[in-house]
Amino acid sequence: MSDIVVSIRQLNKSFGDNHVLRGINLEVQRGEVVCIIGPSGSGKSTLLRCVNLLETPTSGQVIFLGDDLTDHDCDIDSARTKIGMVFQSFNLFPHMTALENICVAQRKVLKRSAEESEAKARALLARVGLGEKADSYPGQLSGGQQQRVAIARALAMDPTVMLFDEATSALDPELVGDVLRVMKSLAEEGMTMLVVTHEMGFASNAATRVVFMDGGVIVEEGPPSQVISAPQEERTRAFLSSVLNH
């Protein structure tokens, strides 16, 4: 069994004349936490959305656990059950409680019993620090709490990899820490994670590798100690000085 969970090969994505991704090559190993940083408009979120084919690549391949997701014969729905995704907006069902939000896909997609899915949901709510909020509706929760429910919902599917697309950018600053703590604990437990983030502290502390993107290409990648603390490329240095001195 290969340790490569995601392999992105010569990936291009255009929206009309706008060439957003230009020949991206990236591999994510089992247990790695890869943080993608870069200015807005650099293609980070588009890259993440191509991994589970929420965006269809214009050309190139996305190989997940040995299967080419860009192949027409690939069962993308089956593959997606193993790819957890947490968005900027929480995407919870407003008419369902936190518990129900975490149970619904377990029952419909994984065919778990009501008892099993509820037990799993309660355990995950406790894990993200919201054990007492099982019966609360999204409208009764803060943004940070909603995002932690969204993380629990993704984890309920037992994913092989978790994708986080700017998971904290819609949150008030005082709520960001709770979400980052959950993400950091996942990283420490060995969850494979691909994280688009502007939280440099999280990238420095939790990432095994940092990828800096600009203009649709990977400009630089390496351990955080190199990319964030001692960047080689001028574009990386300029970006980091603008972010860190902000």
The portion of residues assigned to helices is 25-40%
Q: How large, in whole angstroms, is the Cα Rg?
A: 18 Å
Please mark out the parts with pLDDT under 50 across 5 or more consecutive residues, or reply none.
none
> How far is it from the N-terminal to the C-terminal residue, by CA?
44 Å
Mean pLDDT: 93
Largest sheet: 6 strands, mixed
Number of helices: 9
Descriptive notes:
- This protein is of the alpha/beta class.
- The protein contains 9 helices and 10 strands.
- The longest helix has 16 residues, at 173-188.
- The chain is globular.
- The mean pLDDT is 93.
Short descriptors:
about 250 residues, 10 strands, four-stranded antiparallel beta sheet, six-stranded mixed beta sheet, alpha/beta
List the topology elements.
Blueprint: E1 4-15, E2 18-29, E3 33-37, H1 44-51, E4 59-64, E5 67-68, H2 76-80, E6 83-86, H3 98-108, H4 114-127, H5 143-155, E7 161-165, H6 173-188, E8 192-196, H7 200-206, E9 209-214, E10 217-222, H8 224-227, H9 234-244
Helix pairs in contact: 3-4, 3-5, 4-5, 5-6
Short description:
The protein is an alpha/beta fold and 246 residues long.
